[in-house]
Amino acid sequence: MSLQRSVDPGQVGFDPARLARIDAHFARYVDTGALAGWQLVVTRRGEIAHVSTYGLRDREAGKPVEPDTLWRIYSMTKPITSVAAMILWEEGRLQLTDEISRWLPEFADVRVYDRGSTLKPYTVPAIEPIRVWHLLTHTAGLTYGFLQTSVVDGLYRAAGFDLYPPVGFDLATATAGLARLPLLFQPGTAWGYSVATDVLGRLIEVVSGQSLDAFLAERVLGPLGMTDTRWWAEGPDAERLAACYAPDPTSGQAVRYDAIGRLALEKPTLLAGGSGLLSTAADYHRFTQFLLRGGELDGVRLLGPRTVRFMTRNHLPGGQDLGRLSTGGFAETTFDGIGFGLGFAVVEDPVPSRTPSSVGEYYWGGVASTAFWVDPVEEVTALLFTQLVPSSTYPLRAELRQLVYSAIVD
Prior knowledge:
Elements: H1 16-31, E1 37-44, E2 47-58, E3 63-64, E4 71-72, H2 77-90, E5 111-116, E6 121-125, H3 132-137, H4 151-158, H5 171-179, H6 196-208, H7 212-221, E7 245-247, E8 254-256, H8 258-261, E9 278-279, H9 281-292, E10 296-297, E11 300-301, H10 305-311, H11 322-325, E12 338-340, E13 345-347, E14 362-365, E15 371-375, E16 380-385, H12 396-405
Helix pairs in contact: 1-12, 2-6, 2-7
Pfam families: Beta-lactamase
Keywords: Hydrolase
Organism: Plantactinospora solaniradicis
């Protein structure tokens, strides 16, 4: 499945000449060697106003980016898993306020880091149990080992939880292992980017009685027609997979990064609900349109419109923003003026981050510099696909917002 422009940009309020700036700007990243290639999609009012590709999906093999190129979407898996959890919520099979230990008893007596070192940490009992909404909002106190910003991150790495989980772990054993590690903070008191969505994936398995991949295929990906979204690429599909790159620390040139890139060619032992999927621009476009349309696409409704609106409000304690509650470290967002909903960052005030977004825009991205956003006010969606790790290397997402919003002239 590929995408084509479905409307003249002027018919949906875009200036075509201003939209053309997008390709010219991002082409420079490829022409200077900073990126290998990219794919972009911009829509308004449900119509595709701009779609483009540039450069190579595999520079060393000389293979161009094609409309059906497969991309590692990493943390853009999180919103999909969050939608799956909310499907169960709409069916009354869980409550957002439920303690997760109801289904995952290993989390019944979690402890919280208080002081000390990785060699001798001191912990205290959790005052508040981890609840379902804590997982959806990254306020559970979990973290990521690769962040390297706290003693708890170090404890994760010592236990084998770095960018990837310990070899041989599946989702059940990984979740059990994470439950034995201390929390970074008391649940519900701060925001920390984390493995929370992986734990949410395990929760979905236990509540539904299905494996995460089976549940996503049956209840989300299949109904939405996301036929190219999968956990790994094999056979002929492996030829469509973009190579993964990282910046050379001296030259800034994109250098092939097969150490993690090749993992997408192997069936994973662990289905990571927070980072495991590969997808195409056409597939993720369908996901953004499902969100923009309030939980329905092509006559198939997965969520009610009020549920989508509820998911994309700020659920952080006290209505605070990430600038006040974030524990720091790596994240796919700026902090000031940004809240967090049930699976998405949410713009509360665009001024502090100096981006011309609308209040209520929601979004997320992946560690290989992929990104999407949905703006229900302007009825705009945008998608960016490339494969450069880490996503903090260049301000690609902020620049795309500048270019897209400055092209709206109605």
